[in-house]
Amino acid sequence: MTQHFKARTIETTKSFWTIFPGLCKGCGLCMQKCPKKCLSWSDVLGVYGTPSVEPNDECIACGICQTVCPDCAINVTKKKEERKAG
């Protein structure tokens, strides 16, 4: 399996992201629709030779990017909030 097809997991403050560079065609739709504008182009190239995306810590884990991705290249899992004892 080449690096282009391996899923990458990225942890942000509020979520875990799984990005599939082999599926991403670099259309940028996820970047356009992100309400926090927290996505940027990655150095990892997808199968088409285009860059995939990666989030930063401003991600609120809303999942809009996952919903609009036409290639199902993004999976966002929101972290469970820890409740403070008291």
UniProtKB/TrEMBL annotation:
Residue stretches making up the 4Fe-4S ferredoxin-type domain: 15-44, 49-79
Superkingdom per UniProt: Bacteria
GO molecular function: iron-sulfur cluster binding; metal ion binding
Keyword Heme in record: no
Keywords annotated in UniProt: Iron, Iron-sulfur, Metal-binding
InterPro entries the record matches: 4Fe4S_Fe-S-bd, 4Fe4S_Fe_S_CS
Pfam families: Fer4_7
PANTHER family noted in UniProt: FERREDOXIN SUBUNIT OF PYRUVATE:FLAVODOXIN OXIDOREDUCTASE (PTHR43122:SF2), FERREDOXIN SUBUNIT OF PYRUVATE:FLAVODOXIN OXIDOREDUCTASE-RELATED (PTHR43122)
Name of the protein this chain belongs to: 2-oxoglutarate ferredoxin oxidoreductase subunit delta
Species of origin: Desulfofundulus thermosubterraneus DSM 16057
